[in-house]
Specification:
The chain is built from three helices and eleven strands. By secondary structure, the protein is of the alpha+beta class. A hairpin with a 5-residue loop joins strand 7 and strand 8.
Length: about 180
């Protein structure tokens, strides 16, 4: 049985939005927007380019990676999150500006066992997930809400429109 087929069989297709997961999202967003210089562009031809698979399409967005964050900021991120830090290995902030998007992918290929996505902004929905029949489901992003999903769940961020404000999200990665 192929890996993708096994992944589909094992994937939990019942993701949930957990509202009010992060109480200090405004404080975090303010810090992030004041430190825009820490973002790394993740586009074709860069070291940090994001692809669903080798040779596949490349996403277009920016990230602040764990190693580029001062400890004070990491402490700020974690101060209101429910205690689930034992295996937390990375904190990443993603920014999607007009024209940016995240290609359809799963997080299972990333070598970690749990991934939490927390929205720092809301507005027009762009985050989507795909069910077992490959149907797209757009989710209304909510500030401070966490999207609880299986790492085998296919998901993407659709292209941000030309007149839309930037979208920001926080990713917690557990190895």
């Amino acid at each position: 049985m192929g890996i993708l087929f096994r992944l589909i069989l094992m994937t939990d297709f019942n993701p949930q939005v957990v509202e009010n997961y992060l109480a200090n999202h405004e404080e975090i967003l303010e810090w992030v927007t004041q430190h825009d210089n820490l973002f790394t562009r993740r586009v074709e031809g860069t070291k940090r380019a994001h692809r669903a698979n080798p040779g596949g399409p490349t996403s277009k967005f920016s990230s602040i990676f764990n190693d580029d964050m001062p400890q004070e900021f990491k402490d700020m991120v974690l101060k209101t999150i429910p205690d689930d830090r034992k295996w937390l290995s990375q904190i990443v902030i993603n920014k999607y500006e007009p024209g940016d998007y995240l290609v359809k992918h799963t997080d299972a290929a990333g070598g970690y066992y749990k991934f939490k996505l927390i929205w720092l902004t809301d507005g027009t929905p762009h985050f989507c997930w795909y069910d077992a029949d490959d149907n797209q489901h757009l989710i209304q992003e909510k500030k401070g809400a966490m999207f609880k999903m299986d790492i085998g769940l296919c998901h993407a961020v659709t292209e941000i429109g030309p007149n839309e404000p930037a979208k920001y999200s926080l990713c917690l990665i557990y190895r």
